[in-house]
Amino acid sequence: DQQVKQNSPSLSVQEGRISILNCDYTNSMFDYFLWYKKYPAEGPTFLISISSIKDKNEDGRFTVFLNKSAKHLSLHIVPSQPGDSAVYFCAASEGSTGKLIFGQGTTLQVKP
Amino acid sequence: NAGVMQNPRHLVRRRGQEARLRCSPMKGHSHVYWYRQLPEEGLKFMVYLQKENIIDESGMPKERFSAEFPKEGPSILRIQQVVRGDSAAYFCASSRDRFNQPQHFGDGTRLSIL
Fold first, then answer.
1. What is the pLDDT along chain A (112 residues), one digit of tens a residue?
2. DSSP E strands: which ranges in B1-114?
3. Closest CA–CA distance from residue A72 to any residue of chain B (Å)
4. I want to staple A23 with a disulfide (CB 3.0 to 4.6 A). Which of A52, A90, B69, B88 is the partner?
């Protein structure tokens, strides 16, 4: 029972263009959402988060959009850079304990 | 991932031995979470601890696995009588609070069972 899904295993984008990574969830009790970037042999690095009371949060080149009615969130990276090439995980938490439920990840490749 | 320290980075054990994984949270963080990533899978929650207390262990196998976060010292994830299926990357994360606060991860311990 996958409560958080990233349906695209991989994405390839040209340097300078926009990268859009998508994530769907099923549990309407989730109230906090996060995006992490992960390189091989390292732990996930926190990128950006959004509370369920908002529909958009922006931090530099990274913007997260939340559509609660569709139970969908997306991460926009613009402009994309070769150093952004990594695996991106979306995660969701329910307020009671804060434990994170992760998607399966999307591998982003940014080509020079 | 500076801040959350995990050791060892790599641990090799034979079947039946015990594995002890350590995690020191970021300064000022009193909430610790353990996750496991099996080969070809995503990260799965195991246990959530706040100083000296286990808050949620719903993701931890009922047998052989235990966790603690003592008043002094790091959090410990202990696996007794390891089996091949325990081979995985184990990640620790910490946060300031359980509510609407990002969790920051260490670089993990890669456990290999011979």
1. 789 999 999 999 999 999 999 999 999 999 999 999 999 989 999 999 999 999 999 999 999 999 999 999 999 999 999 999 999 999 999 877 789 999 999 999 999 9
2. 5-7, 10-13, 19-24, 31-37, 43-50, 53-56, 65-68, 75-79, 88-95, 104-105, 109-113
3. 18
4. A90
